[in-house]
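Module 6 notes. Inverse folding takes a fixed backbone as the condition and produces residue identities as the prediction. Think of it as a translation problem where the source language is geometry and the target language is the twenty amino acids. Below is one complete input and output pair. Work through it position by position during the lab.
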């Protein structure tokens, strides 16, 4: 008879950027689960909630017993996995703190600079690093379908990626739209830099065959919508994902954190978590 395995201890999570929209959703998801334990939380140095309990700062009715701080290294002292949903300018410092504490790092922050992406690649030689512009399970499956469709359809099928988000989203196109563009370009055997269509305004002229275009909409409280259009002669194929609740991203991020715990150093993606790559 096989021995009964003892249950694993909860994954110890440090949340970097605890007071943003995603941060608050992650705190709710952690409270709803017994598989994760919040051991640290940060906010910006200007945040009015510094020193408050993370639950109180997020407007929740329950407390974590974890105060919101600003020093990443101190916040990471007990953590197994850091979830970074802060701002792009803060990620470099978070990388260094994770290297100093040997903590696995999941980065969901978007609009990262090329220099930051290079630092993440180098950090992956020492700690597990997972970069996920979108942690929704459905979106990451969509990326696989987008690549497959781009590989199957000829270049005369124009690819356009249309995304919509709430009025407060700062970057455009969204990190998810760019991820989908990279998947489409991979399906056509190249990279997005080679195929991305320039922004259109005024007399933009005819579209160059084979390019990948982007359109961004901002308004209201739209959580996130992404449609990839393949417009060909006489027909149009559309692949769409709509997020109705930001909690779907939070649950996906926690699933990725559980997968990342104890993983060997390396650069990973949501495709690895879901078994696509």
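Target side of the pair, the amino acids:
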């Amino acid at each position: 008879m096989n021995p009964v395995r003892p249950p694993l201890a909860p994954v110890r999570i440090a949340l970097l950027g605890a007071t943003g929209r995603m941060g608050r959703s992650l705190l709710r998801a952690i409270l709803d689960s017994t598989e994760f334990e919040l051991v640290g939380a940060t906010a910006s140095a200007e945040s009015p909630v510094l020193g408050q309990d993370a639950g109180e700062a997020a407007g929740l009715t329950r407390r974590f017993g974890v105060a919101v701080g600003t020093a990443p290294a101190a916040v990471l002292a007990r953590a197994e996995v850091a979830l970074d949903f802060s701002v792009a300018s803060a990620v470099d410092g978070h990388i260094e703190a994770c290297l100093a504490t040997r903590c696995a790092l999941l980065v969901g922050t978007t609009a990262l600079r090329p220099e930051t992406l290079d630092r993440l690649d180098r950090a992956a030689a020492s700690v597990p690093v997972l970069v996920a512009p979108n942690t929704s399970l459905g979106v990451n499956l969509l990326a696989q379908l987008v690549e497959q469709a781009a590989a199957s359809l000829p270049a005369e099928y124009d690819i356009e990626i249309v995304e919509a988000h709430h009025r407060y989203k700062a970057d455009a196109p969204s990190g998810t739209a760019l991820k989908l563009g990279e998947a489409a370009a991979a399906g056509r055997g190249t990279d997005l830099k080679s195929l991305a269509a320039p922004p259109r305004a005024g007399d933009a002229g005819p579209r160059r065959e084979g390019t990948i275009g982007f359109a961004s909409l901002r308004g209201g409280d739209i959580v996130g919508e992404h449609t990839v259009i393949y417009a060909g002669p006489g027909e149009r194929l559309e692949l769409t994902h709509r997020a109705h609740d930001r909690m779907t991203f939070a649950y996906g991020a926690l699933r990725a954190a559980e997968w990342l715990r104890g993983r060997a150093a390396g650069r990973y993606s949501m495709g690895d978590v879901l078994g696509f790559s």
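Reference fact for the lab report: DSSP finds ten helices and eleven strands in the chain.
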